[in-house]
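Hey L., structure's done. Input below.
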Amino acid sequence: APIAYLLLLALFQVSIVLKLDGHVSWSIWRVAAPWLAIEAIHGLLLTLQLVATILKANEGRAASPTVRQLLVVALDTYWWFLIRVVLAVLVVLRLNHSISWHWALVFAPSYLPAIRSVITLCLLRRQLRAMGDAEVAQNESAIVLASVIAFVIVASFVYSFVALLIWKLSLPSAVRLALVLIPVFIALSILCCLCTCLSCCLACGMHAPLDDERDVESNMSLVLGLL
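Output:
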């Protein structure tokens, strides 16, 4: 599957370049076919995973799962996949001029993960307030706070990029592409810095025991020399 993803992604990029340069007169659906094929493969893998999960859950159980339980499991498995598929179809329809919606409405499915995350964090906060153990609640509150901070940072970059992209698509001549890609450049810079810092920390952690061993050996040699 990873190799198929990479090949289809490369084919999708080549199709976009050929279409934008005017070398081919393909329709938008044909250009987007590799993208939709990637989502189709992902959907097939999710279906196999869902079937395996249901079969594993049924082992050793006398009663079969209810329809509600199956729907909950299916929704938990497919929700992100369905959002991506709906978003891809809406974008292709808008580029093909099959619909005349505003681009902010076309990208509406991309807002759902943020709404889901906010609701999940609010429910977790509510559960923590109802807990009787203060120590456990305090530890869980720290985890929730860290999750909120991470969500705010990630959402700020993602949705600032989405907003600038909507602005660019709505007014192509009024916005430069470099301005749209500023959140991407900032996120990649931060990620590069984090990877560099982690690499340095790991390198120091790997060499620290060797230095300690050398110090111990030198100290032992000095003690033996004195004796």
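The CA atoms of residues 118 and 148 lie 9 Å apart. The mean pLDDT is 81.

-- N.
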